[in-house]
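DATA SHEET
Item: assembly model
Revision: 1
Owner: S.N.
Input lines:
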Amino acid sequence: MAMQLRRAATDNVIIPVSRGVGYAQPSLEVLSCNTCNIRGGCLAEQLTIAHDHSYQVVKNRKVLSKGNHIFRGGDDTKAIYVVSSGSVKSYMLMEDGEEQVLNFYMPGDVFGLDAMGSSCHISSTVALETTTVCKLPLSGLQDRALGQGFLNMISENLLRDHNLMLMLARKDADGRLASFLIDMSKRIEKLGQPVDVIKLTMTRQDIANYLGLAIETVSRALRRFQDSGMLEVTRREVAIYDFNCLLNIAGTQVTGSCSS
Amino acid sequence: MAMQLRRAATDNVIIPVSRGVGYAQPSLEVLSCNTCNIRGGCLAEQLTIAHDHSYQVVKNRKVLSKGNHIFRGGDDTKAIYVVSSGSVKSYMLMEDGEEQVLNFYMPGDVFGLDAMGSSCHISSTVALETTTVCKLPLSGLQDRALGQGFLNMISENLLRDHNLMLMLARKDADGRLASFLIDMSKRIEKLGQPVDVIKLTMTRQDIANYLGLAIETVSRALRRFQDSGMLEVTRREVAIYDFNCLLNIAGTQVTGSCSS
DNA sequence: CGATAAATTGAGTTTTGTCAATAAAGGTGG
DNA sequence: CCACCTTTATTGACAAAACTCAATTTATCG
């Protein structure tokens, strides 16, 4: 395949030092759980409070602006993270500089799990927009009962990965894009937002790198969908008109619920 | 893509009841850890003993013959499993009957993790040959400190999945097959077996369903490799002559070690 | 408002899937 | 132990999907 190099602000070969030393993190402001929108079921809160009962209010939230990395491949493992607001992509770099996007994370999602068993991160993560993340130190994690929520999260992660694998292995371009849009829709639904309008915080290139397609193929598939009238694309926003049609094109979706 | 239906003994739509009720498991023999070859670092042993200190000798091993399922998609979640001997494949069925192979498991490997957070299994698992598996009941798992070994295992699983995703998304047929062979070689190396002879316990169809290729493409890629002299294929056995060449074709491999 | 980045669109090529036929292997029963 | 049948694997010819290259348009950001 050997596509040409295509990387943007998320490049992690040439490490940006543009704003001088000390500005690696755009904001050092640390926020407490009290001001977090993710109420109930926040794993970071659960685990951190469980870990240290003296803190009822956890203060480990940080604001990142677009393009800022949370961690990069090779960085020492320190924590796992929860998205509080905004969105994040995780990716791995191939030797040719090509990046494979592994996942997009939205508010409530936990990321950085691949680091749990290793001394450093394998993947990299970067904010796709102004984003707030909550840091959950890993120290002592192995000695504690982690609770069902933790196990659920792990199997959710595995399920998501399996879904992507299935998609990459078996679906054509239209099927992959349809699956992607449905997945995004389901996720924003969980956040209580309207399901029929998807705001894409990632570039077409990111989508292509996630779905294992060329950027041109993504563009053309979106056009085909739009021409058929099932949805409308305007810049980074997709309005879905015919959900059934999209589901049809997507084919098999692996859900967490046991219906099969 | 919509390839034609291709399923064999592992079909789980038509449930085989060939040998009559009561023979769902070919053997009810239960073996103890004392007779297990996997010494040291067996997670099943660790977790089970940790769970119930009164049993120093765990008796939960079972023998399965080729084609027998350990569990099927939709089955109630009861346990996670460790391969003691033999080999296992896990797969998910698509609506068109197509199966996507998720992984092949070898002695020491843990499988069934996707069930941890769910009330039933999403994937199915089947023995590829005469296989011994160790069952690890899930009950009470969430209330216990699971140890670093458990966390390691989870991140290993995630890493393996990410590797496959990267492969499916970015590599051509030759790259995928080369990656597959290298991975198999590394895994048998861990088991203390020679790295240059790989015994394939799965069919070409299974490999194709794992790599997201047509069976013919797998066959042709193997022929190309053989013609170039880097390896030799005889039935279900691959003798590797030029490992560097294979690594070259495979391209990026994601390893657990932090070298990047 | 201009420069850079992102996205779209078209034309041509390559890879891989599909269909079809054949060969080889493995298992079963006489 | 051998013949037969089923399953598995190989090989060839053709078609389709997606990638590459190239040009253009449209956003975004300073």
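QC remark: Chain A is about 30% helix and 20% strand.
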